[in-house]
């Protein structure tokens, strides 16, 4: 018989490995004695036959993949697998591939069960790992492009149902019910008694059972409604919803949580789920009549982006569509605000600065906005615009566009000016540029009208186009400010990131990537006297005007596309994982080709910065 | 001769159907005629896997046949005097173990040394030597090392061999750790060098 000391090499490894580390020494020895050991060479590049046992990786590495070959997870020393097979029979069909020569410890099923019996925390732990992999696996399955149509139906009903079902009392008349439906522009109505669902009435019911029958519209609506309608739970899959609808020949399903109606899912929702289109979303945004419902729609944006990433949509295109969505939110908020506060006393223009103006928004963009007032306001008018801007900025925050930490928002009275007021401000920046002012102020030169009278911006742009190409000191200062941030070329010398502190060694794709290109594009566009705002168009304009070398310009466009693409891809994945999207990239996850391209891109940025210094800051740089 | 005839006509079997007895001895010297066996560690490979349930380790009692020279090397082998006094009788152990594993394939790292000691001790205790087939993980490795690497001892010690297969480093000079380390090395050799599903005959040839 072996003692704990004999088995020390094995037992001490268990002591460092969850969940065995939680066991007493005696129990660890007991587990160690039950183990078998196997060696799995990498060249055996086929899925392992898992059998009914728990695998514990002593050395080596494995990849966990879905039945379709999508990577779910990479596993290394101290990681476990085979859990799903043991606990649930692995209905997902997850597969395990050795990617390095590996030594594995195996715990047979009987011993695994015995362990779980004795310690319920063990079972809990294994269960958690199992369901986590299950979830990861399902997410990856949804990613699969070839099967997207079917996969869309694997999403939860709650994600697609309308959040606030329209309802009225069950004893209302047909006319009252119809007017509620008209008011809310819905095709179905829940009939409630208290909070309990009594029935559902649809457009079709009104047509077939009321109009066609010539029924008196002052009768109780419950008489023509479907009583005790088929309903569905919020956690059910869209697939289940579709099945119910075709089974019972209905187009509307109330969503009941614990017997209480929490939403409604319609056949149209199912179609939308399958062809997620930004047009549907924009249409939805512009239809909302209250802020709560409008703010709910922000949750649909990540799914859209995810689909575009999967479909390899160019980040430039994504930016344009995201800008259109952002514009729709602003437009709707302004409408709702004016519904509440009254119409604006005179013409104004709602401006977007920065990323929304350039149309390269991604996830979690802050709002940067301002107002051009059509004329000098009276005291009351000025107060009205203050309230309007406050309302809209706070509403946008609820819609997912965070308040600007630098307070560059229309709610700040500094950024509500007449045309003359804005020209004065831009003149000041151009005539007496300071690095500090330009560092915070460069986004003002990326500006676009989102709502209101577009003509108000024209004289301001005319002024800029006329002045900036000749403003040598201004351009020199802009350039010097822009090159303060350098591309992270040093990063590639030791491209290894330890999983320690958050973002500690990660690449900052925003501040040391896309923002550098945006800065360079802005300077060249201002030097070229171009009115273009998006980075791609600015580079194009600068090349056409002869201000920017063609080769360098094209390289910059490619670099921007690559870095912006990687950034939004990472963010989309982070959102899918339930994390907050950031602009940081863990270079460990990159394949060698992407890594080489990224290195090239940063090299281009460096060359472009040096060229810009030469071109615009000669004699001033030192 | 008859015995040999019988054995060689036994049809080849998949290696996973054979039991392997993987053994390591800690010795007081390299000379079987004067040295002593201090301890033994062993594990079995069954169905192509190391089974820790079929494993053991024991220290042998200091007998009249063991000289006083033991203490120096015993220190190196993590063995205290007390442990040796409470240890197992080597004769009993040999009788029991050799009978049990007579039909198994034996595995050692640098087998000539261990086998010489076992044979010598069997002669002294008058125990029949079972004539086992022995696989030597060191010899296997030596034959397959590229010629440009000098076959010095350093390149062929247990941990150096294990590193070539990505196996972890275990504690040195402990009979059980070394037996386990040898068993894993043997698995690694068979699984990564001998193609799919070799037979026991293939193994014996490969380790010859």
UniProtKB/TrEMBL annotation, chain A:
Span of domain Cyclic nucleotide-binding: 49-115
InterPro entries linked: CBS_dom, CBS_dom_sf, CBS_domain-containing, cNMP-bd_dom, cNMP-bd_dom_sf, DUF294_put_nucleoTrafse_sb-bd, GlnD_Uridyltrans_N, RmlC-like_jellyroll
Superkingdom as given in the UniProt entry: Bacteria
Signal peptide location: none
Single GO molecular function: [protein-PII] uridylyltransferase activity
Domain CBS stretches: 161-217, 225-281
Annotated PANTHER family: CBS DOMAIN AND CYCLIC NUCLEOTIDE-REGULATED NUCLEOTIDYLTRANSFERASE, CBS DOMAIN-CONTAINING PROTEIN CBSX2, CHLOROPLASTIC
Record key words, sorted: CBS domain, Repeat
Protein name: Cyclic nucleotide-binding protein
Stretches that traverse the bilayer: none
TrEMBL record, chain B:
Cross-referenced CDD domains: DEDDh (cd06127)
Gene Ontology molecular functions: 3'-5' exonuclease activity; nucleic acid binding
Residues of the Exonuclease domain: 19-195
GO cellular component terms given for this protein: cytosol
GO BP: any one term: DNA metabolic process
InterPro entries per record: Ribonucl_H (IPR013520), RNaseH-like_sf (IPR012337), RNaseH_sf (IPR036397)
Keywords: Exonuclease, Hydrolase, Nuclease
Family matches, as SMART domains: EXOIII
Protein name: DNA polymerase III subunit epsilon
Taxonomic path: Bacteria, Pseudomonadati, Pseudomonadota, Gammaproteobacteria, Oceanospirillales
